[in-house]
């Protein structure tokens, strides 16, 4: 369900996507409003689920997670039991940063962060021990060109 956003909502979302730790006074100043309306709008946006969570974005490389693999998965099985096992395996692996079900020739794509190729191999072996996969293609990202959590805020 799409939420209707006012111009001030869009401004607030743009600011907090950049830095959610800003004091309310500063957010209000940047969006050209006062604290109380901004606080009320932030509460409304949280209650509506537009703002899902407030988190710290960590630097993977500084934490030793220098390898980013994109894992393309094809499966020959599409029954509920396989899907439940696959979803459980993916959701319980902390290395999996993102998982998407795709239209087209590939069924799923995973974004996996690990320290190195050996750690990826360990991840891969653990995954295939939990769920049967028809074909897996793994691609190592050589350079991260863009990585953002900021969404493009739609204009009314």
Automatic annotation (TrEMBL):
<keyword id="KW-0804">Transcription</keyword>
<dbReference type="GO" id="GO:0005829">
    <property type="term" value="C:cytosol"/>
</dbReference>
<dbReference type="GO" id="GO:0006355">
    <property type="term" value="P:regulation of DNA-templated transcription"/>
</dbReference>
<dbReference type="InterPro" id="IPR036390">
    <property type="entry name" value="WH_DNA-bd_sf"/>
</dbReference>
<dbReference type="InterPro" id="IPR036388">
    <property type="entry name" value="WH-like_DNA-bd_sf"/>
</dbReference>
<dbReference type="InterPro" id="IPR019887">
    <property type="entry name" value="Tscrpt_reg_AsnC/Lrp_C"/>
</dbReference>
<keyword id="KW-0805">Transcription regulation</keyword>
<dbReference type="InterPro" id="IPR011991">
    <property type="entry name" value="ArsR-like_HTH"/>
</dbReference>
<dbReference type="InterPro" id="IPR019885">
    <property type="entry name" value="Tscrpt_reg_HTH_AsnC-type_CS"/>
</dbReference>
<dbReference type="Pfam" id="PF13412">
    <property type="entry name" value="HTH_24"/>
</dbReference>
<dbReference type="InterPro" id="IPR011008">
    <property type="entry name" value="Dimeric_a/b-barrel"/>
</dbReference>
<dbReference type="Pfam" id="PF01037">
    <property type="entry name" value="AsnC_trans_reg"/>
</dbReference>
<keyword id="KW-0238">DNA-binding</keyword>
<dbReference type="GO" id="GO:0043565">
    <property type="term" value="F:sequence-specific DNA binding"/>
</dbReference>
<dbReference type="GO" id="GO:0043200">
    <property type="term" value="P:response to amino acid"/>
</dbReference>
<dbReference type="InterPro" id="IPR000485">
    <property type="entry name" value="AsnC-type_HTH_dom"/>
</dbReference>
<feature type="domain" description="HTH asnC-type">
    <location>
        <begin position="5"/>
        <end position="66"/>
    </location>
</feature>
<protein>
    <submittedName>
        <fullName>Lrp/AsnC family transcriptional regulator</fullName>
    </submittedName>
</protein>
<dbReference type="InterPro" id="IPR019888">
    <property type="entry name" value="Tscrpt_reg_AsnC-like"/>
</dbReference>
């Amino acid at each position: 369900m799409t939420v209707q956003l006012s111009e001030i909502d869009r401004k607030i979302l743009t600011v907090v996507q950049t830095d959610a730790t800003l004091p309310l006074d500063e957010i209000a100043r940047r969006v050209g409003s006062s604290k109380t309306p901004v606080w009320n709008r932030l509460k409304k946006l949280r209650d509506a689920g537009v703002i899902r969570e407030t988190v710290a974005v960590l630097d993977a490389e500084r934490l030793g997670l220098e390898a980013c693999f994109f894992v393309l998965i094809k499966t020959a099985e599409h029954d509920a039991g396989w899907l439940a096992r696959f979803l459980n395996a993916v959701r319980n692996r902390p290395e999996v940063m993102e998982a998407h079900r795709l239209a087209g020739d590939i069924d799923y794509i995973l974004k996996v962060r690990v320290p190195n190729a050996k750690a990826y191999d360990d991840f891969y072996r653990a995954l295939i021990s939990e769920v049967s996969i028809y074909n897996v293609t793994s691609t190592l990202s050589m350079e991260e060109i863009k990585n953002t959590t900021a969404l493009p805020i739609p204009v009314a």
